[in-house]
Amino acid sequence: MKDEKRILAINFGGIGDEIFFLPTLISLKKEYSNSFITLALEPRSKSVKDLTDVIDDLLLIDVKGKNKYLELLKLVFKSRQGKYDIVISSGGNKLISILLFMTGIKVRCGYNTGKLSQMLLTHAMPLNKKQYACAMYHDLIRNLTRYNTELPQINIQRKVKTSNSVLIHPGVSKISVQKKCIKTIPAQTWAKVIDLLVAEGKKVMLVGGPDDKECIETILNTVRTQNFDNLYGTTKSLTDLAELISSADKFLCSDSAPLHVAVALGVKTYVIFGPTDDKTLIPQSEDIVAIKADDNCALKPCLWASRQTTCEHLECLKISASKIVSVVLSD
Questions:
Q1: How far apart are CA 132 and CA 282, in angstroms?
Q2: Mean pLDDT by 10-residue block, N- to C-terminus, for the chain (331 residues)?
Q3: Phi, psi dihedral angles at 48 (to 5 degrees)
């Protein structure tokens, strides 16, 4: 039958990238209701499966490890074993088309990166990086489905809303820090934000993951008020974090994976943006508000677009605590 398809989707990246990819998988599941979807991804992002029922199986490929090329050969081998009908890859590398061709899968969808991709792919789709990332990924399947899922959707047990609450997640992934990709304000500024929100009568909740330990400790050592809930360490999984975010009236965070969880939940979210491009990382929605510095940097947004690490000046992240709080309280 038309809707009985075995589909292999390949998307390497962090949790945020996998959440961006969910609308693509959701549309495929709508088009092929009896399909079996396997997602090939990095081991660090496997918890995305806990948030959705559209992924039937995972194939873990450690492309960041020492044996990258052996891992890619494993992907080809598993792809041939899986008897898939369709393969889709989000990679923009020119060699992706060769990888997909090697799988032997009949229908191969990837980005048009030149003549080679046009020869080896059955669907070589335009790559438009100047749009919301969910839409960029969804372009891959434009020829396969009549559906257009615009935003990620996740399936969790939502919690009762905590009245007048602001949940704060200040951290970014450890890999970002290791790569010298600074994307958020200093911990001392986050502490001032907590003080000001509490002074305005807000019920503040602070949360973070294992990567955020140093940031959270600095906040706790700097903040003046004790009239807030320190929930650091209480969320043991991505599902736990998603459930907590669902309970908040408002969510304040950095440009990191929890942002995309909040988008999928439809929670009113405020995001600190510095060197990255908010136009590609958040949807155009009144529920998602970008908070940016009033700097005049001509290169912004530069991270990923023109450089792989942030600059030393970081004028784009000199955002005062009072400005952040005024935006959060403005509606």
A1: 6
A2: 84 96 98 96 97 98 93 96 97 94 98 97 97 98 97 96 97 69 88 98 96 93 97 95 98 96 97 92 95 85 71 84 97 79
A3: -60, -30
In contact, 303 and 225? CB cutoff 8 Å: no
Tell me the chain's radius of gyration from C-alpha atoms: 21
pLDDT recorded at residue 142: 97
Tokens 């009908």 sit at which residue? 85
Predicted local confidence at residue 182, as pLDDT: 74
Quote the tokens at residue 327.
């935006």
The count of other CB atoms within 10 Å of the CB of residue 209 is 22
206 forms beta bridges with 168, 230
Closest CA to 72 of 137, 140, 10, 141: 10
CA-to-CA distance for 156 and 8, rounded, in angstroms?
24
Predicted TM-score of the model (pTM): 0.93
Q: How far are the Cα atoms of 30, 109, 232, 271, 303 from residue 203, in angstroms, in the given order?
A: 40, 47, 16, 19, 34
Pairing assessment for the beta strands 57-60 and 86-89 based on DSSP bridges = unpaired
- Residue 295: Cβ-neighbour burial (10 angstroms; 0-12, 13-18, 19+): middle
Phi and psi of 124, rounded to 5°? -95, 105
